[in-house]
Amino acid sequence: MLEVILDTETTGLSITDNHKIVEIGCIELKNQIATNNIFHEYINPQRPVSEDAFKIHGYSEKFLSDKKTFPEIAEKFLNFIKDKKIIIHNARFDLSFLNYELKLAHLKKIDKENVIDTLEIARQKYPGSQNSLDALCKRLNVDNSKRDKHNALIDCELLKEIYINLVDQKEPKLDLNNTELLDGKNDSVSILTNNNLRQIIKPSSQELTNHKKYLKSCLPKNFYS
User: Fold this and answer.
1) Does residue 152 share a domain with residue 71?
2) Could you give the C-alpha distances from 21 to 41, 48, 115, in angstroms and in order?
3) Model confidence over 141-187: pLDDT tens digits?
4) Enclosing domain of residue 187
5) What is the distance between the alpha carbons of residues 118 and 131, in angstroms, rounded to a whole number?
6) Residue 59: pLDDT band with limits 50, 70, 90
7) Which of 60, 134, 211, 219 has its CA 20 to 30 A from that of 145?
8) Is 150 among the residues known to form the active site?
9) Positive or negative, the Cα torsion across 63, 65, 66, 71?
10) Is 23 left (phi over 0), alpha (psi -120 to 50) or beta?
11) Is 171 part of a structural domain of the chain?
């Protein structure tokens, strides 16, 4: 199953004040393992960045002035998320901005039924607790030391770890019969170890035979007597 961890940064807090997106970050997952396929764009909002928003992410109007506009990156973005479940923390916020931008670009909106909100999962799992991204990092022992300011791609990396913990997928995956994890090869298998993709190479029949011969040569002649 393909999923996308998604996060945005904006010029402000509300589309009613015509605030826009300034950054989109996405990380693709396959069976909850990162595929190294990412989408990341800074976006020229063609409007001022609010002072409060600048304090959060640090993207100035000068920095954003030479970046592409949302309509210029929209098709690439939509192709990236196509036919994938979308994982967002506080989905109402990000979806409102994404669908506002898509509407302005005369493009189809994202269906909220295709979105998993990790904030809602966290509220069900830890009722009455703080469930911000930083709070969940602390609770779930996810290292967020790189998060000096908000950054869509860094926040996606953190949310990936949080999501895996929230759905209790914390143990390494190893299924030699699951062709979804074999990458089309008969001599290797991919596994998840500490949320990092690792590849195990399976020995060939000749290598196993040679190994047995070597072990036998190392043992005393009367070992099997």
Assistant:
1) yes
2) 10, 11, 19
3) 999 888 878 899 999 999 999 999 999 755 444 444 444 444 444 55
4) 179-218
5) 9
6) very high
7) 60
8) yes
9) positive
10) beta
11) no
